Amino acid sequence: MRTPLKMRDDSYPRDRYYQDALMRLGQDSMFTKTRHYDGELGAVYSDQATIFRLWAPTASQAELIIYDDWYGEIQKSILMEFDDHLRIFSTELVGDQHGLTYAYRLTFFTGEQVITNDPYAKAATVNGHRSVVVDLSRTNPEGWGERMPSWQTPEKTVIYEAHIRDLTVSESSNIQNKGKFLGLTEENRVNDYGSPAGLDYLVDLGVTHIELLPAFDYATVDETEEPPSSYNWGYDPYNYNVPEGSYATNPFDPFARITEMKELIKTFHDRGLRVIMDVVYNHVYEVENHAFHKTAPGYYFRYNEKGELTNGTGVGNDTASERAMVRKYIVDSVTYWAREYQIDGFRFDLMGIHDIDTMNEVRLALNEIDPAILLFGEGWDLYTPLSSDVRAANQGNAKFMPGIGQFNDGLREAVKGNDFEITAKGYVNGAWYMEPQVVSNFMGGVDFGNYNDPLQLIQYIEAHDNFTLYDKLVASNPQQDERIVERQHMLATTIILLAQGVPFLHAGQEFMRTKFGVRDSYNKPDEINQIDWNRQESYRQSVMLVRELIKLRHNEPLLRLTSYEEIKDTMNVIRQDYKIVHLTYECEDYQLVLVFNAQSNVLNVPVESGKYTILVEDHVVYNDHSNHEEIKEFKSIPPISTLLMKRYY
Ligand code: CA
C-alpha cells in the first residue's frame, strides 16, 4: 500500500553521530560482509536464565535497563559485555525472567545516549514502548498444537484480504469483541437478518486463506484508548515481532495480545482457514523513534548522496534489505511468525523496495518450516537507490524469485481501468480494445516472459488501496444505472475467480463493498471502513456467485492450471475484440467454452452444435451439473455477463 506521507523526517539530524555518517559513506561493507552475526538476537528465554543480545555495532557502551514492573520505574541497569568481533552486546540474567520489563541504554562515542526498546522484542507494554521477556509456551491457548498440514494444492488458493477491526466492529456483525482478535473467534454470529457474519461467513464463503492487514504492532492507534479515537490500516510499523495491542482485549497486559492472536489463528485453523500476514519491512513509521535507528544509526535505511533518507516507498524512508543485518532481521522476523504463530503465508508490502536475494532467503528459510507457506508481495517498480548489481524484488524480476508471487495490476487495470484516474475505464465499464490485455493476464501471463508459472500471479481487481471496485465503477460512470454497475461488478469478479493464477478478493467485494467514494481510507473512521454485514442481503446474487465460483474453481482442474505448458496445451483464444472474450479449454475428455460479454446487448456466439452442461450463465453458477442444453450453432449471452459451459466429446 502507499499512503500519503504521515511524517516526513526532515528533522533528521544528519550528523547526529559520527558513526552514522561513517556507515552511510560506505563503511557499512565492514558490517555487511565481515561482521555479520548469525545467532539469535533479543531476549532469549529459558526458565533457567534469559540471555539478552543486541547488535549495536557503533555504540561504545550498552546497558540493560530493568524496570520495577511493566509500568514501574527504572530499577537498575546492567552493563552489557561487548564482543568486538561479533559487535554484539550481551548479558545474562539467571532465573525465570518471564514478565521482566526491559530496555537498552546505548552510549555512543560522542557521549550521546539513547534509551530504546529491543528491535527483537517479542512482547511489549502498551503502545510498544518497553520490551518484555516472555516464556512463549505460557502464551499458547488451550489446544494449541502443530501447524496445519502442508497446503499441497497451491492452485486451489483463494485469498481474502481483511482488516481485523473492519470485520468485527460494525453493529451489524453482532460480534461482542468488536475490533479485536477475539471477535473473529466468535461462532454463530449473524447480521440483523439472520445471515452469517464474521467467522462463520468466512468459512461458508469457501476462501482458503484469510490475509490480515498488519496485525503486528503499529504506531498510529493509541492502544490506551478504548475505543480508539483513531483508525489505521497499520502500515506504520513499530515492533515487528509483537502483535498489535489495539486488537487485544487488554493492551496493558503484554501477553494478552499474543495469546489472543494465537487464539484467532487457532480458531481459523480449526475451521479450515489458513492465515496470511501482511508484513511491512519496507519502511518504519518514524525513523528517529525506531529501534533500528537508535541501535545502529545510519545502517537500516537507504540514503541519497546528500545523506538524506530516500523515499521510494512514498512514506518517508526505505529500509536497506540488501545489508546483511537488515536481511537477517527480515528473515528472522518472518520465520519467527511462521514458527511461533503458525502463519501460513506472508504478503510483503511494497516488496519492490527489497532486493531479490533477501526475498529468496526468506523463501528458503520458510521452506525449512513448510515449503507450502505462501509468499508474495507488491512488486512495484519503485524509485529507490539500489546499486546496479542488486536486483529489486519487482514484477520484472519475478523469474529470479521462484515460489514468490506478485500482485498483478495488469489484470486489475485491464478489467476496470487505471486505479489512479477516477474516470479511467476498463473492459467491464466501457473501454474499447482492452480484450487482448484481459486475455493475456487472464491466461496467467503465459506470454509475458517474466514469470516462471501462473501461480506467481496474484489475480485481483480490488484491495484495501484505492477505490473499492463498486466505488470505482460508480466513479468512472457516475450517471450509470445501479443495475448496470452490479452486472459490471459481477463480471469483473468472475474474471478474477476464473483467471489462471491465484485469485484474491478484498473483504466485502462479494457484496459490493463501498467506502462511499473514499479512495484511500487508511486513517478514516469505522463508518467508512467497517464491513456492513447487512449489505449481503442487498447483493445476495453476487455473494452466491462468488461462493459458487470458488466451488467451481475447486471442482474444475482446467480453471487452475499450474504451468505454462498446460495453459498452452489447453487454452485457445477464439475471439478477443468488440468487448467479447471467447476462449475454449480442451482436454482429453471434454471441452470448456468460456465467453465474457462486456457489451450492453445480448450476444449470439457461434459454438459447435451439441449437448452442453451450463456451468455459469447470467451470473448464476450451476455446480450440480443439472443445467443441460442442446445448442445448435449459436448460443445467446445476456449483456455484461459470463457464459461457461462444458461439452464431453
Ligand atoms: Ca500499536
Shape: elongated
Regions with little confidence, pLDDT below 50 for 5+ residues: 2-19
For the biggest β-sheet, the strand order reads: 11-12-15-16-17-18-19-20
Overall structural class, as computed from helix and strand content, comes to alpha/beta
Approximately how much beta-strand content do the residues carry? Answer: 15-25%
What is the β-strand count?
A: 29
C-alpha-based Rg, rounded: 26 Å
Enumerate the distinct ligands. Answer: calcium ion
Q: Kindly, what is the distance between the CA atoms of the first and last residues, rounded to a whole number of angstroms?
A: 47 Å
Number of helices: 15
Helix content: 10-25%
Molecular structure report:
With 649 residues, the chain is an alpha/beta fold. It has 15 helices and 29 strands. The strands form six sheets. An eight-stranded parallel beta barrel has the order 11-12-15-16-17-18-19-20. Strands 21, 22, 23, 25, 26, 27 and 29 form a seven-stranded antiparallel β-sheet that branches. Strands 3, 4, 7, 8, 9 and 10 form a six-stranded antiparallel β-sheet that branches. Helix 8 packs antiparallel against helix 9 (435-442). It starts with 17 loop residues before the first helix and ends with a strand. The model is unreliable at 2-19 (pLDDT under 50). It binds calcium ion. Calcium ion binds next to strand 13.
